[in-house]
Amino acid sequence: MDESLQNLLKELPKKAPRSKLEPYRELIFSLLEKNWRYREIAALFKEKLGLAVAPSTLHNFVKVRRKRVGNSSAASARPQKRTNRAEQEKPFVFTSGETLTLLTKERKGK
Amino acid sequence: MKSQNRTKRIVFSIGSKGGTGKSTFVLALADWLLSQNTQCVLLDLDIENKVKGSLKHFYPQAPKIDVHTPSGLDAFIDYLDGDCSVLLADMGASQGQVAFGWFDAMYESVAGLGISFTAIGLVTDDPASVDGLLSWAAALQHRVEYLVVENSISAFCNFVYWRESEQASRFREIFNPSVIPMRFRVPELEAGCRNHGVTLGQVASRQTSVSELQKTSLVLRAQSYRNELFNSIEEVRQVILP
């Protein structure tokens, strides 16, 4: 990035998180890694943090962040999701009856 | 249904090859949803399948719907109008064109209601099973999330066309599907279940009066298969639940 833009960026204040779950992002992903279910996390939040949140809200929160570029904690949660939007939008082309071509050893290694 | 949030999900089997284990997996999924206390409705859309292979044989209460009608798959929407949050549909092997037409006409409106979709493809050693999955994916594109089940229909399945073909590799690269295994089941159990319309879960929990399926060895096998499948499904719960 250009130096003037970097300076501009430094000056701009960080905006407040859009989701009330943002402060708990790491906790949520860590619990998911420990195989906690969304409804269990929701119950834990209510009991321990006094935060009422629906399991579906948690799910949406995780789903969105898994897709974000460079989100290491999100990317490590399973299943791994694509982070490249261009790739995500790429159409898949296949014609029924097409002969399936087995990959060569070199291409498998890539 | 007025919500704009993703509050409901339609999960349906895809593929143009019969005998890949679509109904078997859908039944296991229904058992899993039941174990999660998730409100779901099961639809049997496979009108071509012979009586003993169809979902209705195992779940008599599952409505059997002929999608070859003008309203076609609108049943998806109607059955989701109630309290259920997941609709599980077992599609027939030759219903691709009907489904593609329905998605082209209805997807935007249905997605706008907060309904998301998961397509389940079963692959085996047979290249036709991979062809079926890829053909559907080429039509459905990114409108659905994909769950691929590697169904070992023999003890030595290597899924070479699914794992090592260029086309399947491209599919994985573009859609990044969730992939889970379905282990080879002993024929005695598989055939007995099919013959009597008994699910794996019913054998596992000893809820069948069929004597040949009450053998302890089969019950233990069924429990092992079910536990394994449940664990696998748990891993991909985010593409099954809303």
Short summary:
The complex is a heterodimer of chains A (110) and B (242). Chain A is mainly α and 110 residues long. In chain A, 53% of the residues lie in helices and 0% in strands.
Would you kindly provide a written description of the structure presented here, covering whatever features stand out?
- The complex is a heterodimer of chains A (110) and B (242).
- Chain A is mainly α.
- Helix content of chain A is 53%, strand content 0%.
- Chain A is flat.
- Chain A starts with a helix and ends with a helix.
- Chain B has 242 residues and is of the alpha/beta class.
- Chain B has 2 domains: 8-184, Rossmann fold (3-Layer(aba) Sandwich), CATH 3.40.50.300; 186-236, no CATH class.
- Chain B has 10 helices and 6 strands.
- Chain B has a 6-stranded parallel β-sheet, with helices on both faces.
- The chains are: A mainly alpha (110), B alpha/beta (242).
- The A-B interface holds A 35, 37-38, 56, 59-60, 62-63, 78-82, 87-98, 100-103, 107-108 and B 5-7, 16, 127, 130-131, 134-135, 137-138, 141-142, 160-161, 164-171, 173-176, 178, 234-238, 241-242.
Topology:
The complex is a heterodimer of chains A (110) and B (242).
Chain A: H1 3-11, H2 25-33, H3 38-49, H4 55-67, H5 72-76, H6 85-89, H7 105-109
Helix pairs in contact in A: 3-4
Chain B: E1 8-14, H1 22-35, E2 40-45, H2 55-58, H3 75-80, E3 86-91, H4 96-112, E4 115-123, H5 127-140, E5 145-151, H6 160-164, H7 166-175, E6 178-182, H8 187-196, H9 200-204, H10 216-235
Parallel strand pairs in B: 1-3, 1-4, 2-3, 4-5, 5-6
